[in-house]
Amino acid sequence: MTHASDKLRLQRQRGAFGHRVREHRLSAGLSQEELAEAAGIHRTYVSSLERGQRNVSLDNIIALARALKVDAAQLLEGI
Amino acid sequence: MTHASDKLRLQRQRGAFGHRVREHRLSAGLSQEELAEAAGIHRTYVSSLERGQRNVSLDNIIALARALKVDAAQLLEGI
């Protein structure tokens, strides 16, 4: 797989993850600020990860899931 | 939650993830070296993440899942 297609695949995966977090956040009725506070993550980080611009760590994936009251696995479904 | 209990929780989570990767690797009949190569990750990184010593990134979680031929969500089930 070429470097370019690799990069595209990674961007698509991060975008899918960001979209999933946003979906759960909205259905939980939380603002980005409220999610960030509950997860112990900076608000601007939540905003950029929802836009698919972050290679989020395991610790933060689990902190986000806890704050959204979903299983961490649910944030990766179908990705 | 105190800093110490936070640290313990993170270690427990990383350990559970490492254990899950190891389980899938063994049932796929792969050595750490073979998994590392298939996932495009260094062998020593696979060894330390299986021991729960790594805060693995989203990109690497997905690369590991692809190499193990499982969904990324399966690597986070129950964590």
UniProtKB/TrEMBL annotation, chains A, B:
CDD domains: HTH_XRE (cd00093). Residues 21-75 form the HTH cro/C1-type domain. This is Helix-turn-helix domain-containing protein. The lineage of its organism: Bacteria, Bacillati, Actinomycetota, Actinomycetes, Kitasatosporales. It comes from Streptomyces niphimycinicus. InterPro entries: Cro/C1-type_HTH (IPR001387), TransReg_Diox_bact_type (IPR050807). Pfam families: HTH_3 (PF01381). Keywords: DNA-binding, Transcription, Transcription regulation.
